[in-house]
Design a protein that fits this description.
single chain; about 90 residues; alpha+beta; two-stranded antiparallel ribbon; rod-shaped
Length: about 90
Amino acid sequence: MDPTRYIVRTKTEVGSVKPGDSTSSPENQFQLFYELNLFVYEKEAKAMLKIENLRVLKHILKANEERSEGRCQEKDGASSRVGKLDQP
């Protein structure tokens, strides 16, 4: 492994008060974040980046699939309504 070490910084939300909660007055609204510094080798850093990129890609593909399914359902619904109107 490459002896060069990299710091990988991650920022993760660990809690928040949601609007509508009894504790959601402006002074009680908060978001907690923690920052984690990991010392990793270059090979590990590249692997971590690939995994994160795959996660993002998975979410994008899922959103696109859901959108296209919605469009197909709208088209199917429209064509079935037209067919019913054409029948005597």
